[in-house]
Design goal:
Helices cover about 80% and strands about 0% of the residues. It has about 290 residues and is mainly alpha-helical.
C-alpha cells in the first residue's frame, strides 16, 4: 500500500471515527444528568453554557487570528435554535412520560432527517440507508421494549418525545448546511451561544435555582459540558462536514447503545439478552447504511 493510498483510507475513515466518538460522548450525558443536583432545564443550560469557553478557544485555534468576530450565519443560528428545541422538549418528555418512551420517540430523529431532507432539499435517500434505518429502528425498539408503554396519561409526554426527534432531525440538517461555509469549531460555538441564551431564559423562568448545591453536582455539570457537548457536538459537526446527514443521524442509535453500556458499567443497570440483540441490530443497520 502506498503512502498516498494509506492517507486516502485514513481520510475516509476519520469522519466516521469522529461520528462514533461523538456518539459515545453524547451517550454518557444521562449519567451526568443524574449526578447533577439541579433541575433538568438548568442542567440543559449548563451543559451548553459551561462549554462556551472551550468552544471559543477551539474556534480561535481552528480559524486563526484573522477571524476574531463571530459571524453567526443563518444555518448556525438555525442549528442553535433546533438544538435548544431538542433539549427543551427532551426534558419535558422525561418529566411527562417514561424515560423509555421519551428515548424511543427521540431516536426516531433519522426518520425526520430523511423526510425533511427530501421535502426541503430534494435529497433522495438510497435503498441501503433506508434498510439500515429500519434495522436501527428495530434495534432501538428492542433496547427499550421492556419498559416502553403507551398510556393515555403519558400521551402529552409522548408528543414531547416526538418533538424532540423532530428538532434533533432539523439540527442535523442545519449543521450539514452550515458546514458548507463554516468550520466545525465556529459552527459548534455559534450554535451553542444561541442554544445557551434560549435555555438560560427557560431555566430561570421554570426552575429559578441555577447553582448546584454540591461540588459533585458541579463536577457532573462540567463533565457534561466538556465531554458530552464540547466533545460530542463538536465531533458531530466535524463528521457532518464529510458525511451525509441521513447516515450521520443514525448516530443517535449509537448514543442509545453507549448510554446502556455506561448505565451497566457505572450504575450497575443490567442489560438483557433482548437489549443486546437490539444493539447488534443497530450496529448492523449502521454497517448496511454506510456510504460506499
Amino acid at each position: 500500500m502506498t503512502a498516498q493510498s494509506a492517507t486516502a483510507r485514513v481520510d475516509r475513515f476519520a469522519p466516521f471515527a469522529a461520528l462514533v466518538a461523538g456518539a459515545v460522548a453524547m451517550g454518557i450525558s444521562p449519567i451526568f444528568v443524574r449526578l447533577a443536583d439541579v433541575g433538568p432545564f438548568t442542567s440543559a443550560f449548563w451543559r451548553v453554557g459551561l462549554a462556551l469557553p472551550l468552544l471559543y478557544a477551539w474556534t480561535r485555534i481552528a480559524d486563526g487570528p484573522e477571524r476574531k468576530a463571530a459571524r453567526f450565519t443563518k444555518p448556525a443560528i438555525l442549528a442553535g435554535l433546533a438544538f435548544a428545541g431538542d433539549l427543551f422538549f427532551w426534558h419535558l418528555a422525561i418529566v411527562h412520560t417514561s424515560v423509555a418512551n421519551a428515548t424511543f420517540f427521540a431516536t426516531c430523529a433519522p426518520i425526520w432527517v430523511v423526510l425533511f431532507g427530501w421535502l426541503l432539499f430534494g435529497e433522495r435517500v438510497k435503498a441501503n440507508v433506508l434498510a439500515g434505518l429500519a434495522l436501527c429502528l428495530a434495534g432501538g425498539a428492542a433496547l427499550l421494549a421492556q419498559s416502553f408503554q403507551l398510556k393515555p396519561a403519558g400521551a402529552v409526554g409522548d408528543l414531547f418525545g416526538v418533538a424532540t426527534g423532530v428538532f434533533f432531525g432539523l439540527y442535523f440538517l442545519a449543521v450539514q448546511a452550515a458546514r458548507k461555509s463554516v468550520s466545525a469549531a465556529r459552527l459548534t460555538f455559534e450554535a451553542s451561544v444561541v442554544t445557551a441564551a434560549i435555555l438560560f431564559v427557560v431555566a430561570v423562568v421554570a426552575e429559578h435555582a441555577m447553582w448546584p448545591a454540591t461540588l459533585g453536582g458541579l463536577a457532573a455539570l462540567l463533565a457534561m459540558a466538556w465531554i458530552s457537548h464540547t466533545g460530542g457536538q463538536g465531533l458531530l459537526s466535524i463528521a457532518l462536514g464529510r458525511l451525509p446527514a441521513a447516515f450521520s443521524s443514525l448516530v443517535i442509535f449509537l448514543e442509545a447503545i453507549a448510554a446502556a453500556g455506561f448505565g451497566w458499567a457505572i450504575l450497575g443497570e443490567p442489560v438483557s439478552a433482548m437489549q443486546a440483540l437490539g444493539g447488534i441490530a443497530i450496529l448492523l443497520g449502521i454497517w448496511v447504511a454506510r456510504p460506499r
